[in-house]
Design a protein that fits this description.
- The protein is of the alpha+beta class and 812 residues long.
- Helix content is 44%, strand content 17%.
- The chain has 28 helices and 28 strands.
- Strand 8 and strand 9 form a beta hairpin.
- It is globular, with a radius of gyration of 30 Å.
């Protein structure tokens, strides 16, 4: 049975790596193979052959099941012709809306849709909407509650997200949530046409979300103004959106992020408490009928009733948690144990874990794509590895029993910490060295004090509710003081690049060796197998240089690498006050590559789509020096350890690669009213016979200035399209002078400026210039191999994220 379930999981995981879903012929062949494998699994006599056949049949079944669900969800697609059109939709608020600084975000279940002319339209059944404030009119969206029916005027677009190595895949997240279009609500106020049609449309989901909303409002009111209110809310209803980025940084560096949510431990604790309470009451209950006591345990054993009560309590808590993967895993394990108790069949722990694994993937095949899935099941697997079948000393008295319990808890924490090191490095490229100490304090405090107080405070009558919630918050605040101190150590986190498969395999073998039972020879030798994993160094170009043009939406951000130096040119836009190109794209990529320091950062000018992520980068990693055309009192300059103003004529050489600043000239800074675009730092990077011109947002006047002042410096192999391909840049004379083979356009999907302009892109096409666009190609990786004394021809290797890592859910 376990081989069948594990095979099913592997088949589901295999599909999520495929660039396309299986066609009709492939599906028919797979079904035939499934039947054959199932027959072999039933007929073969040799146990090893049966196990192999069961695994194969499970893998094929998992692959086909995941493909079936993917086909079903992908079939609901927004027609291209409806993108950007104003549409009137009628439907129901489908989740708990989230209030952010600029408006509301929520999911919407569409019931009817009509075009501006009144014609009926077919839309995806669920869409993700944002409803923004209007600061000028001082209007905000109304309060929305799950289950309300609304008529809204919206503009939609197909699912699309940034595609970067090591980055979050927004498109597959939308697919997993069943959201096949995103968009915004148009207008505010009574004249907008947006109106509520019904206060509540009953459904089980709406009821659960209403309860979550009621609990969140209750706790937010009681903890108004408290810094860690978001942590308390997350522990009760699993909503982590109110936790600040600074706090998440501390939790991540100390390795306790798994506790700031409804974890498996919390669900097990709640289920156990309810089971114990119901069992105690059931055993002591009686009913008098005709003067004869009728004991309820005679009708149904107390253990079965307790199992049912514990499962029901776990189900309620998991529903309030938003049904996350760790919560699902725990719920299914509790349910399987309860079923085993009710049916009288003893289930091994490994069977329970495999069943929970299969059920999670049966309901959510995309769960394998998220770190929480692997960490959750791997932690339980490690605990099983170090506990099942290993002898324990017998305890004779209560004191010895308590000491043994403490020893077991410490051993379990040690096992989980060590056991998850290879997986954590594979998923995140870093491990917290202070995690054992932080978790040793945080786990008992959060699980047995903070969480019970938060749960009791969320439902207790006032004013007891406020007291309990404030007590829970005070404990979190005291814990945070310790965590901030621990996270402040320079060596709190060990960073390494994402390992190659063989490094990870050696790391797993080393982990199994380290955690082997007592008596296993030289267990410390397992550490030697970790050395490739821990000492893995970030790769760098041996010759020439490498450029990564990130997919940051509408904005610029490029990383230039030589053999031993790295320069970041621009830092992407600011998306929200808590999210920008630095925190969302650049820093995850640097962690993915194991890069902990930048030699330099150039911020071409002050526009928010170029400078928006600079502070996040400066706050997180060491930057040798910053160059910019910013005003002297700019916040980025104030935070930089060393700053220099961009000036034409500046140049330096790293590892045989020449960097030349072509613009701005000193006189540009003295022109009153000069737009920031006109001061864009324009950098040329050259090695051997290849080069790239990073033009920032220069426009036609600056292009003309370069043409007249230094035309001999302009020819380049690759050009970063000036001003994202706007109509005010990329003049014909400039393109003729640069004569690039390749042009890179960093633009946002369906951006409001309509960059690159059609006539500008045609100008590039007419000259035979290859055009790469971040909105269509994702991140662009350019490898400039310098010519080696004429023996090796100069070349530029090109990779695009959406092509090299193509997945079936990519819309374009």
């Amino acid at each position: 049975m376990r081989s069948l379930l594990l095979g099913f999981a592997s088949g589901v995981g295999l599909l999520q790596t495929r660039p396309a879903l299986p066609g009709v012929m492939q599906t028919v062949l797979l079904l035939a193979a499934l039947v054959l494998a199932a027959v072999l699994a039933c007929r073969m006599r040799r146990a090893s052959t049966r196990v192999l056949a069961r695994t194969a049949s499970g893998a094929i079944a998992g692959f086909l099941w995941a493909a079936l669900l993917a086909t079903h969800y992908l079939a609901e697609e927004l027609p291209v012709a409806l993108e950007g059109q104003e549409i009137t939709v009628t439907g129901v608020i489908a989740n708990l809306p989230y209030r952010f600084e600029r408006g509301l975000r929520f999911h919407f279940a569409v019931e009817q849709a009509a075009s501006a002319g009144g014609g009926a339209l077919t839309l995806p059944s669920r869409i993700a909407l944002s409803w923004y404030d209007d600061p000028r009119a001082k209007l905000s969206p109304p309060v929305l509650r799950p289950g309300e029916r609304w008529q809204l005027s919206v503009k939609l677009k197909r699912p699309h997200g940034n595609a970067n190595p090591g980055g979050f895949d927004y498109e597959v997240w939308l697919l997993e949530q069943g959201l096949r279009a995103t968009g915004s609500v148009r207008g505010l106020g009574p004249d907008s046409g947006n109106r509520r049609l019904a206060a509540f449309v009953f459904s089980l989901t709406a009821m659960v979300e209403r309860c979550r909303g009621w609990l969140r409002e209750r706790m937010a009111t009681a903890l108004a103004g408290q810094r860690y209110a978001g942590v308390i809310i997350a522990l009760v209803i699993g909503d982590q959106r109110d936790i600040g980025q600074d706090d998440w940084k501390v939790f991540t560096r100390t390795g306790i992020g798994h506790l700031v949510s409804i974890s498996g431990l919390h669900i097990t604790m709640v289920a156990g408490l309810f089971a114990a309470l119901v069992q105690a009451l059931w055993r002591r209950s009686f009913h008098t009928r005709a003067q004869l006591p009728l004991l309820l345990p005679l009708l149904l054993p107390a253990q079965k009733v307790a199992a049912l009560a514990g499962t029901a309590a776990a189900l309620v808590y998991v529903l309030l948690a938003g049904f996350g993967v760790p919560a699902q895993r725990t719920l299914y394990m509790i349910a399987v144990l309860a079923m085993a108790l009710w049916t009288g069949r003893i289930a091994s722990v490994s069977h329970v874990l495999c069943t929970a694994l299969a059920v999670v993937l049966l309901l959510d095949p995309w769960a394998v794509l998220w770190p929480g899935f692997w960490l959750s099941f791997s932690a339980v697997a490690v605990i099983l590895y170090v506990s099942v079948g290993r002898a324990r000393p017998a305890c004779q008295d209560g004191a010895a029993s308590r000491m043994q319990a403490l020893s077991d808890a410490a051993r379990t924490q040690y096992a989980v910490t060590v056991g998850l090191v290879p997986l954590t490095l594979l998923l995140f490229g870093q491990i917290s060295l202070v995690s054992p100490l932080a978790n040793a304090i945080a786990i008992p405090l959060v699980s047995f004090a903070v969480t019970p107080l938060a749960l009791a405070g969320s439902v207790a009558p006032a004013p007891l509710s406020a007291w309990l919630l404030l007590a829970a918050h005070w404990l979190v605040a005291q814990l945070a003081l310790l965590l901030e101190w621990l996270s402040g150590f320079a060596l709190a986190v060990w960073t390494a690049p994402i390992p190659q498969w063989w490094m990870f395999a050696l790391g797993l073998a080393g982990m199994l060796w380290l955690l082997a039972p007592r008596g296993w020879p030289a267990r410390w030798l397992g550490l030697l197998l970790w050395l490739p994993l821990l000492l893995n160094a970030s790769d760098a170009p041996e010759h020439g240089f490498r450029v990564t043009a990130f997919d940051v939406g509408q904005g610029n951000a490029l990383l230039v690498e030589t053999a031993s130096h790295r320069l970041l040119y621009d830092t992407g836009p600011a998306y929200t006050p808590d999210s920008d190109g630095g925190s969302r794209v650049i820093l995850p990529y640097l962690r993915y590559r194991g890069i902990s320091r930048l030699d330099a950062m150039l911020v071409s000018h002050s526009d928010i789509d170029h400078a928006g992520g600079a502070l996040s980068v400066l706050d997180e990693i060491d930057v040798g020096w910053v160059g910019s055309s910013l005003e002297p009192d700019h916040e980025i300059i104030n935070q930089a350890s060393r700053h220099s103003r961009c000036l034409a004529g500046q140049n330096w050489t790293w590892d045989g690669v020449r960097f030349e600043m072509l613009h701005p000239t000193p006189s540009i800074y003295d022109i009153p009213g000069q737009k920031p675009n006109g001061r864009s730092c324009t950098l040329k990077v050259s090695a051997g016979g290849v080069s790239m011109l990073l033009a920032g947002d220069i426009e036609a006047p600056q292009e003309s200035l370069l043409l007249s002042g230094m035309p001999q410096r302009l020819p380049s192999t690759v050009l970063l399209a000036p001003h994202h391909g706007s109509g005010t840049s990329s003049t014909s004379d400039f393109l003729d002078a640069v004569a690039p083979q390749i042009a890179v356009f960093q633009v946002g999907y369906r951006n409001r400026y309509r960059h690159p302009k059609a006539e500008v892109e045609q100008r590039y096409a007419a000259r035979g210039i290859r055009r790469l666009r971040s909105d269509l190609d994702g991140a662009v990786m350019l490898d400039f191999a310098a010519s080696g004394g004429g023996e090796v021809p100069a070349a530029v290797g090109v990779e695009t994220r959406r092509l090299t890592q193509k997945r079936y859910w990519f819309g374009r």
